[in-house]
Amino acid sequence: MIIEKKSKPKTEQSDRYLTCERSSVFYLLMFSAGMMGAYTYNLRGGVFSNAQTANIVLMAIAFGRREIMLGMYYLIPIFAYLAGTVIAEVLPTPVKKIGHIRWDTLLLAFEMLALFAIGWIPLSMPHQIVQVAINFICSMQYNTFRQSEGVPMATTFCTNHIRQLGNSLVRYVRTRDSDSFKRIKMHGNMLFIFFFGGFLLTLACPLLSEKSIWLAIAPLSVGFVRLLYADLVIEKTLIDEKPHGH
């Protein structure tokens, strides 16, 4: 008598994605980041909070023109971004969770509180205060949310998405494979959403002034509710599972 072994259902960890890795959550983060970038450039000193390439270029130009104090000014957002990266790398090791709430969820709560506080800071105050805060937030977000459904992602700037979009377009033309098409859609959506966030915030700046940053809280709040519900209900038993890319 031959006993057939029942095949086990395919439940590889690589095929399962946590809510914090879902593309819909990354779109919300990117939408908010587009608003933050437009906010600091339009109202808070003309610097870029989302990534630091432009600020390093502007610093080099200032030093080349012998405008030393202006060049030193750009060190503020650069070092704030660096500090956020270091803390986002170190802090989740001892604080992976609090109860049944993940670090990723806690970070969104922190971001919302910080943006709400920033909205109360008058434009007459030194811009460096807000620059440091938003650079810090963007850096922590970028370093925490790294991969969406198996695809490496940046949630605070666009350069990587433009490169990945070009690569995926070429691969799709050559192979017509579904993975390349998926990446085209994801990176294209991220670019459009970032653009739309910056566009919307720029329109709001003359109307809401310093409080226009509160618009960036809206997408974060939707993401926070989704992550919190996942932590406490649908992914309660997966609380110790690490997101891909970490």
Layout of helices and strands, plus pairs?
Blueprint: H1 23-43, H2 53-64, H3 68-73, H4 75-90, E1 97-98, E2 101-102, H5 103-118, H6 127-144, E3 147-148, E4 151-152, H7 159-175, H8 178-208, H9 217-234
Helix pairs in contact: 1-6, 1-8, 1-9, 4-6, 5-6, 5-9, 7-8
Give me the number of helical elements.
9
Supply Rg: 20 Å
Total count of domains:
1
H/E element sequence: HHHHEEHHEEHHH
Strand composition percent: under 5%
- Shape designation: globular
What report would you give on this structure?
This protein is mostly helical and 246 residues long. Helix content is 63%, strand content 3%. The strands form two sheets. It has a two-stranded antiparallel ribbon with strand order 1-2. A two-stranded antiparallel ribbon has the order 3-4. Helix 1 packs parallel to helix 8, helix 4 (75-90) packs parallel to helix 6 and helix 5 (103-118) packs antiparallel against helix 6 (127-144). The longest helix has 31 residues, at 178-208.
Task: Give a summary of the structure in a few sentences.
The protein has 246 residues and is mainly α.
